[in-house]
Design brief:
There is one protein chain. The protein has an 8-stranded mixed beta sheet, sandwiched between helices. A 6-stranded parallel beta sheet has the order 14-13-12-15-16-17, with helices on both faces. A two-stranded antiparallel ribbon has the order 5-6. The chain has 2 domains: about 190 residues, Rossmann fold; about 160 residues, Rossmann fold (3-Layer(aba) Sandwich), CATH 3.40.50.2000. Helices cover about 40% and strands about 20% of the residues. Strand 7, helix 3 and strand 8 form a beta-alpha-beta unit. About 50% of the residues are buried. Helix 1 crosses helix 14 and helix 7 crosses helix 12. The longest helix has 20 residues. With about 375 residues, the protein is α/β, with parallel strands linked by helices. It is built from 15 helices and 18 strands.
């Protein structure tokens, strides 16, 4: 097949769940298409506008505004120009919550469409809610014309069909993959010092503050317990102040966003990974942590409940509070090997090669139709 263009709000070197998803699939799309283009934004303007990764993959970055790094408003003329230049047979749109993908869908021309919404069913800012209400009619029109809607969890699939009935009968579930090479190199072993890891965006709904309070409570009896926090976001300053208030200054290691090659060793050397968010359409860090065998504690809610159902993760029942979290974390660090998912098989834990095969192999019949 000739060409595919993938549209995403951001792409590496920006770091995040969608960025990882899109870059991993784009690298593997070259096995299915002779020409692969990615259209994305560069709010800071520090990256090349055109980057040829190899003979098959080209990254196009267009100017955009990005208030609080949550929403990306691309130049419409720039987006249209690059879409016309890439001339895709298949147009793969990402992110229902952001602007570039849906706008590209309106400009789709004769391209066959795939839509991966990354839909979480809620927005965490007033601006996001206003924007979503404004362009929701365009999303409905887009979904009505898309032959394939790819969701990454059963939870997200239910949200899509409930919110956009037009997607019924079009939804496929393809979980995010795991980097097989990093998984093999970084298998979990119980560390000598008990260490709790959180990795992800620092937003209020992630409940990182409650995990910190739980760790502080447990440190009253075990001052060897430490916490690692990887990520950035709008509440990072608040969390740093909370660390001081709780007396955790020497008990917390802070990391900025890390590339996966640096994150996987942190998984493998932690006693447990914790994600206490009650609103996730998937958990990249959860799947990756489970893949390397580290005990993983999650809120038994939204898509994270699917890992609990598969016997892969340790549940904390919502609503989240520090006492519930402290009890569960304490239970796990008392006997980590008991809670390790090492060696367990599940359809939720797949490689990126498998995810790419499921995403792109059906495109031949899609284009022919």
């Amino acid at each position: 097949m000739d060409s595919i263009t993938i549209v995403s709000p951001r792409y590496p070197p920006y770091v995040g769940g969608v960025e990882t998803h899109v870059s991993q699939l784009a690298q593997r799309a070259t096995k299915f298409f002779r020409r692969v283009s990615v259209i994305t934004t560069d709010p800071l303007g520090n990256l090349p506008s055109i980057q040829n990764v190899d003979d098959y993959l080209t990254i196009f970055r267009i100017k955009s505004l990005a208030p609080r790094e949550n929403y990306h408003f691309p130049s419409p003329s720039g987006l249209f120009k690059v879409l016309k230049q890439s001339r895709p047979q298949v147009l793969h749109l990402h992110c229902i919550h952001d602007i570039p993908g849906p706008i590209a869908g309106i400009m789709r021309g004769n391209s066959s469409l795939i839509f991966t919404p990354h839909y979480v069913g809620r927005l965490n800012s007033g601006l996001g809610r206003i924007l979503f209400r404004a362009y929701r009619p365009f999303i409905r029109e887009l979904v009505a014309h898309v032959p394939r809607v790819i969701c990454i969890s059963r939870f997200e699939a239910r949200l899509m069909t409930d919110t956009f009935p037009e997607s019924a009968g079009k939804v496929e579930i393809i979980p995010n993959g795991i980097a097989s090479d990093l998984r093999e190199k970084n298998q979990w072993r119980e560390p000598e010092e008990p260490t709790i890891l959180y990795a992800g965006r620092l937003e209020r709904y992630k409940n990182v503050d409650k995990v910190m309070r739980a760790v502080a409570k447990l440190r009253e009896k075990n001052d060897r317990l430490r916490m690692r926090i990887v990520g950035r976001g709008p509440v990072k300053g608040e969390l740093e102040k909370l660390s001081h208030t709780l007396g955790l200054n020497d008990g917390v290691e802070w990391y900025d966003r890390l590339p996966q090659r640096d994150l996987f060793p942190l998984y493998a050397s932690s006693t447990a990974v914790v994600l206490a968010s009650e609103h996730e359409n998937w958990g990249n860090t959860v799947a990756e942590a489970i893949g390397v065998g580290v005990p993983t504690i999650v809120a038994n809610a939204s898509s994270l409940a699917e890992f609990v159902e598969e016997g892969l993760a340790v549940p904390v029942e919502p609503p989240m509070d520090e006492l519930k979290l402290a009890a569960k974390i304490g239970e796990v660090i008392d006997d980590p090997k008991k809670f390790s998912p090492k060696g367990k098989q599940s359809p939720l834990i797949i490689s990126w090669d498998e995810a790419a095969e499921k995403t792109f192999a059906p495109c031949m019949s899609l284009v022919n139709s």
